[in-house]
Amino acid sequence: MSFSAKKSLGQNFLNDENLLNKITDLGNISNEDVILEVGPGTGKLTERILNKNPKDLIVIEKDVRLVEYLKKKFGDKIKVINEDMMKFPYKNFYNKRLIIFGNLPYNISTQILAKWIKIENLENFCKKFVLMFQKEVADRIIAKSNTKNYGRLSILSNWKMKIEKIIDIEPSSFKPQPKVKSTLLVFSPLKEKYNLKDPKNLEHVTNIFFSQRRKMIKKPLEFLFKDFQNIARQLNLDLNLRPQNLDNITYYQICEKYEKLID
Predict the structure, then answer these.
(1) Hey, do 7-189 and 199-262 end up sharing a CATH topology, with the first three levels equal?
(2) Residue 159's closest CA among 234, 245, 251, 86?
(3) Which fold, 7-189?
(4) pLDDT at 8
(5) 154: part of which helix (H) or strand (E)?
(6) What CATH architecture is 199-262?
(7) Kind of pairing, strands 98-103 and 34-38?
């Protein structure tokens, strides 16, 4: 049975057999694992995940047509939830150590990633994320300081996770073909991470810096701290640098100082 993809839902169905097998293998699925697949489409990856015999497989699908199709195709072998992945109550799974698979709709990919990153005790919620993004977004996620793609998204993403780029994927692997390349990334939550009280503070700090990324860092520091020169001394910051010159660890340190200030 074939489905026409809904543009409004950002649907592009992956149909490359080798790639589907590769994605499944990246999960290292055992019979102890609970799997969450977001945006399963017509269930091609779902089928391969089931063949690995996980303990449970839950899929979240917004498109009612596909929900009915998946229920008929897999019956009680999987649990199908008809929900928007942005509105789904992930807190119900906080201690499951899920493996999450997702070919994320381009229009909400950064929002859903940020939502997951903000989950407290992320390492208890998820063991591993195997996710596909538009290449341009993936480049921003994995970017290092002193590069043009480096910014708020890479700083937030690398705060709690180790990120590995697997492969770039051509449009021809999808139906319908998107206009851009995609990239497959694997995220592993870190056991040891910089201890910040609230991710919203990190978002605020990075927003202040990167809203004027060509300006020197003196201005955003001055905006955040009355005694900015003292903060610069403590963190050994050169005030003539620009936001993209500071590595992600430095931003976590600045955020830690900011949190003490507003506490």
Answers:
(1) no
(2) 251
(3) Rossmann fold (3.40.50)
(4) 44
(5) helix 152-160
(6) Orthogonal Bundle (1.10)
(7) parallel
- The model's pTM is 0.92
For 31, counting Cβ atoms within 10 Å of its Cβ (0-12 exposed, 13-18 middle, 19+ buried), the class is exposed
Burial per residue of 43-70, b for 16 or more beta-carbon CB atoms within 10 angstroms, e otherwise: bebbbbbbebebeebbbbbbbeebbebb
Q: Which two tokens stand for residue 165?
A: 């780029």
DSSP percent split of the chain into helix, strand, coil, nearest 5: 45, 20, 35
Rounded mean pLDDT of 197-216?
94
Give the residue-averaged pLDDT of 16-40.
96
Of residues 186, 181, 200, the one with CA closest to residue 137: 181
- Tell me the longest C-alpha to C-alpha distance in the chain: 65
Q: List all residues 6 or more positions away from 190 whose beta carbon is below 8 Å from its beta carbon.
A: 123, 160, 161, 162
Q: Which of 181, 161, 162, 184 is nearest to 170 (CA)?
A: 181
User: Helices 199-210 and 152-160, interaxial angle, to 10°?
Assistant: 150
> Which sequence spans correspond to the domains of the chain?
7-189, 199-262
What's the CA gap between 166 and 24, in Å, rounded?
13
Instruction: Quickly list DSSP for 170-186.
Output: -GGGEESPPSS-EEEEE
